[in-house]
Amino acid sequence: MSQVVIQFKNVVKAFGQQTILDHVDLTISSGKTTVIAGPSGQGKSVTMKLILGLLRPDSGRILVDGQDITVMRAKALNEVRTKFGVLFQGAALLDSLNVFANVALPLEERTKLGGEEIRARVLATLAQLGLTGHEEKYPAQLSGGMKKRVGLARALMLQPEIMLFDEPTTGLDPENSLEIYKLFLETQKKFGYTSIIVSHDIPKIFNLADQVILVNKGKFSTFASPEDIQLSKLPEIQAFVQYTMGKVYLSREME
Ligand SMILES: Nc1ncnc2c1ncn2[C@@H]1O[C@H](COP(=O)(O)OP(=O)(O)OP(=O)(O)O)[C@@H](O)[C@H]1O
Ligand SMILES: [Mg+2]
Predict the structure, then answer these.
(1) What does the angle CA 85 – CA 10 – CA 68 come to, to the nearest 5 degrees?
(2) Which of 141, 180, 212, 230 is most deeply buried (CB count within 10 A of its CB)?
């Protein structure tokens, strides 16, 4: 039995007349990979922001490591946020800093480590992500895939318990996307974090998933495997399956 790290209990979130999360329950277990998928504009990114406490729900509870973050004040919330590493679409590197400085930034801002220790940690992580020799380059001099890897290196610097990836392969070709996902798997094994990935890369991404959460019209459905999604009797899930995976799909044939 693995431990629950994130739990939504009956969460409702609306913007004006539009209900984005309609009484949602979900559970994310420690050390596992959860993929969140579904059509555009259905609340995947909003869900990420709720998890980070950047948005608050209208009702319901959101627990991170058993603590209800929906009632927390800013200071406690900031403390909780140190558990998270985040990699969003653009990788959000600072253009004026080179690779080394971008990756060193969290250690400089959030720890009291000395220059030598920071240097050692940054170089070690860059090496693990295949970026040795690129320390002096600026973001404009990197390929899309390299930018994502630098973003991942930076997100990993504070050794997060939970990694959030919101469409981390945007702008990459299919081959590079696959490389990034392989890298996620490897780094996850190495660092042991819990991983939550929002992705449109279906069905590729499902190979990584310990569970898949499909989001549609405010309802969130959790599936233990891609096959389970296919077997769903719900018409909207069947429509999603046909649209994204075709009629017949077996995850073990994807390797
Ligand atoms: N701060 C906000 N104020 C008002 N509406 C918002 C806000 N944030 C998101 N929304 C709305 O909530 C809905 C869900 O947005 P969200 O960004 O979560 O979609 P998504 O599932 O991530 O879509 P995509 O796959 O295109 O990234 C959208 O209709 C969006 O317009
Ligand atoms: Mg989004």
Answers:
(1) 50
(2) 212
How many domains does one find in the chain? 2
Tens of pLDDT, residue by residue over 26-61, are 999 999 999 999 888 999 999 999 999 999 999 999
Pocket of ligand 1 (CB under 6 A): 15, 20, 40-46
For residue 91, report the distance from its CA to the centre of ligand 2, in Å. Answer: 14
Q: Which domain holds residue 109?
A: 94-159
Is the bond into 235 cis (omega within 30 degrees of 0)?
Answer: no
Q: Do 42 and 136 have their domain in common?
A: no
- Give the C-alpha separation, 196 to 186, whole Å: 15
What is the pTM (predicted TM-score) of this model?
0.87
Beta strands 33-37 and 194-198, pairing class: parallel
CA 194 / ligand 1 centre spacing (Å)? 24
